[in-house]
């Protein structure tokens, strides 16, 4: 095989690798949306997962609930059973168990309706997730430190922003049970939740486009080099 042909093949392979590996790496984490929500507000947090444990199908997801969040209403997923694990008078964890293991490479989401603490403005709340698989498990619980390299298994986090007047008013006027409010919040936030894509999906698309662009440049350079060699 001529040198120019080898160079062209290598460029094509490199471009394909970058285009494919970038979105895979970006979607490897368990993510949560929205990334930020006002203190004291009722919201629906959606956790997404698109991979197994080193390729092994997922059988269960356990989400830890931070202190200060007293009540949670899990959304029922078809094919999964949901359960609340109490920690005294509050919900400490929510567990989802798959009726049929979720194969690696297939995406699903888990939505929790809850109220954020009113006194948590400016804080970052972590929701550690334990992913159980047919073989092994992955603990998404490592803290992400600003300015440092992201850990291998970061915990999903949200930033609590300043409460608005409407959100304070809604909280002060609360007279019904927390579950009733959680149901109302689910209805109010469904449109907003469905309109936004997960951060992992957006990043995957951006990195995927970048990988394709790099691959295309490599191909152009290889073709140019081949023409020069033939000339």
From TrEMBL:
Residues 29-160 form the YncI copper-binding domain. Residues 1-28 form the signal peptide. Keywords: Membrane, Signal, Transmembrane, Transmembrane helix. The keyword Signal applies. It comes from Cryobacterium melibiosiphilum. This is DUF1775 domain-containing protein. The keyword Repeat does not apply. The chain crosses the membrane at residues 202-225. Residues 164-197 are annotated as: Disordered. Residues 184-197 have a biased composition (Low complexity). InterPro entries: YcnI-copper_dom, YcnI-like_sf. Gene3D superfamilies: Uncharacterised protein YcnI-like PF07987, DUF1775 (2.60.40.2230).
């Amino acid at each position: 095989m001529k040198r120019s042909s080898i160079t062209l093949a290598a460029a094509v392979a490199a471009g394909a690798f970058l285009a494919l590996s970038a979105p895979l790496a970006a979607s490897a984490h368990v993510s949560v949306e929205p990334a930020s929500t006002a203190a004291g507000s009722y919201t629906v947090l959606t956790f997404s997962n698109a991979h197994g444990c080193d390729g092994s199908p997922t059988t269960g997801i356990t989400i830890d609930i931070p202190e200060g969040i007293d009540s949670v209403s899990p959304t029922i997923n078809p094919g999964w059973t949901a359960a609340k694990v109490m920690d005294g008078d509050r919900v400490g964890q929510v567990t989802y168990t798959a009726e049929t293991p979720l194969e690696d490479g297939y995406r699903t989401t888990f939505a929790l309706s809850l109220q954020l603490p009113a006194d948590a403005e400016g804080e970052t709340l972590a929701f550690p997730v334990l992913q159980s698989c047919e073989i092994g498990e992955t603990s998404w619980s490592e803290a992400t430190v600003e300015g440092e390299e992201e850990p291998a298994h970061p915990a999903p986090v949200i930033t609590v922003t300043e409460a608005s007047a409407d959100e304070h008013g809604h909280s002060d006027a609360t007279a019904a049970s927390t579950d009733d409010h959680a149901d109302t919040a689910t209805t109010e936030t469904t449109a907003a939740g469905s309109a936004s894509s997960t951060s992992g999906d957006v990043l995957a698309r951006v990195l995927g486009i970048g990988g394709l662009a790099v691959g295309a440049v490599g191909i152009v350079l290889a073709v140019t080099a081949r023409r020069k060699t033939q000339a």
